[in-house]
Amino acid sequence: MKELSAQGGGKSNMPEVIVVEEPEATATATAKVHDLDPRVNVIANYMTIILSSLGLDINDPSISETPKRVAKMLLSFNEKFDPATLLKCFETNDSHDVGGVVAQTNIPFSMLCEHHLLPAVGIAHVAYLPNKGRVVGLSKLSRLVKAVGKERPTLQEAIGQRIADLMSEHLQAKGVMVMISAEHTCMTCRGAHAPGVRTISSVVKGIFRDVPHARQEVIEMWKLGGAI
User: Fold this and answer.
1) For 50-79, how does the pLDDT look when each residue is reduced to its tens digit (9 = 90+)?
2) 111 forms bridges with which residues in the sheet?
C-alpha cells in the first residue's frame, strides 16, 4: 500500500493523503488459493507427525504453522496447466516459412526433486525452428519452462524432455533444442555436500538432431545470448 501526497485546495496547508491499493503479488494470490485446497490439511497433519517424531514442539509459536507452510510449498510444485492454451500459435501464411530459428536464453525456473523432495533452481535455454509460419508469443516459452517446473515433483532430465515434447507437439516445429542448468539442494545440503555444482542436461529433436550445422546455429545463438 502506498501513500501519495497531493496539495489540497482547502484552508489547510497540510497535504491530502491519498491511499492507493496495490495489487497483490502472484505468490500471495497462489497462497490464498492453496488455503482453499483440502489437501493442505491432509499434508499438514502428516507433517505434524513428522515434526513431532523429530522431537520438535509443535505448539512452539515458531513451529505451529510449519505444517501448513510445508503443505502449501509442496502444492506449489503440483500445479497443473493446459499446454494447448499456453502454446497457442499465431497462424501466419501457411504457404511459406517465416523467419529462422527462435531462441531464448537464461529462463529462470525452480523444481522439486522427486527423490528427496528438495528444490533445485536453475535456468533453461530453448530454441525451435518454426514450421510453415507456426510461431508462438515470446513470453509463452518462458511461461512454459516455469509451468513444467511447477507441474509436479520430477527430475531435471524429465523437465527438459517434457518442454521439448510439448514444443514439438503444439508448435509442430521442425526442430527443438532445450538445455537446462541447475543447482540441486539434494547435492548441496546432503549426500555429496557439493555446493556450486551445476547439473546440465539437454534434449535435441528434429532437424537440430539430424543436421549438425543447424544444431551449431542454435549453439551460436545461445552463446550470443550469454547461455554458453
Assistant:
1) 999 999 999 999 999 999 999 999 999 999
2) 120
| Structural domains of the chain, with CATH | 2-75 (1.10.286), 83-224 (3.30.1130.10)
Which has the minimum average pLDDT: 11-15, 128-132, 162-166, 182-186?
A: 11-15
Evaluate if residue 93 carries a pLDDT over 50: yes
